[in-house]
Amino acid sequence: MHLHTSLSRPRLVQLLAGWTDGASDPPRQDVAEQLAPWLGVPDAIALHAAHQGIGAPARGQAPVAGVQLVQALDDELKRVRATLEQSVAAGGRPARRSASARLPAEPAPPEAPGFGPWQQRHSEQQRRMDMSIEALRAHVRESLARASPRLAQLAALDGALHAILGAREQRLLAQVPAFLERRFEQLRPAEQADDDGRWRSLFEQEFQAVLRAELDLRLQPVIGLLDALSNEVKTWQ
C-alpha cells in the first residue's frame, strides 16, 4: 500500500466550486503531496510509523472474517446512509417512531428573510453525520482489526489518519455554510416585490444536494475499509 496515487475531486467540492467566480482546476498532486501541508512534524512521524507497519500480507493465514461479516457491515452502512439521507430529505425532522422513542420534531424552515433557518438545519445535519458515521467507522475498524493481521494494520492506519486529519476535516466542513449563505444571497431577489418564492425551492434543492454530497464524502473512509475487507475475504474463497 502506498500514498502515491491521485484523488478525484469530490462531488461536494464540485458543487461549492460552481458557486464561486472562478472555477479551480482539480489538484494534480498525488495524495502524499496533498497531505503534506496538513501535517506537522509530530503528525508526519505518527503517520510514517503507521504506514511502515503495513507490510506484506501474511501467507497461509486466512482471515477470520467471512462473507457473513462483509454482508453485515455492508447492511449497517446502508442503514446509516439511508437514515441520514432520510433526515436530509425530511428537512432534519426525524421519521415517525414509537411514542417512547420519538425525538422532538424540528420545525420546517420558516419563510424568514435570512439564511439562519438553513444554517441551523445544516449544523444539525452535520451533528447527525458526525455521531452516526463516527460510530460506524469505529465499528468497521474494530471488525477489521479482528479479521486478519493485514486488515488489522489497515485499521491501525485508518485510526492514525482519523486522529491526525479529523480536526482539520471538521474545520474545513465548518466552512460549508459560508458557501451556502453566499448561494442563498445570489438567488434571493434584491426587491421583496420580486420574491415569488421559486428561488427558495431551487435553493432547497441545492441545499439538500450539498448535504448529500457531504454525506458521501464522510462515508468514503468507511467504504474504503469495507472494500478492503471484501477483497481480503474473496482472496481466500
Percent helix, as a range, is 55-70%
Give the overall pLDDT as a whole number: 79
Shape: elongated
Low confidence ranges:
1-6, 93-110
Intertermini distance: 22 Å
Relative strand content? under 5%
> How many H/I helices?
8
Give the ordered list of helices and strands.
Answer: HHHHHHHH
Strand-pairing-aware structural class: mainly alpha
Task: Report the radius of gyration as a whole number of Å.
Answer: 21 Å
For the biggest sheet, the summary is: none
Compute the number of strand runs.
0
Index terms:
about 240 residues; 8 helices; elongated
SSE topology:
Elements: H1 11-17, H2 31-35, H3 41-52, H4 67-89, H5 116-147, H6 149-173, H7 176-187, H8 198-235
Brief summary:
With 237 residues, the chain is an all-alpha fold. It has helices at 11-17, 31-35, 41-52, 67-89, 116-147, 149-173, 176-187, 198-235.
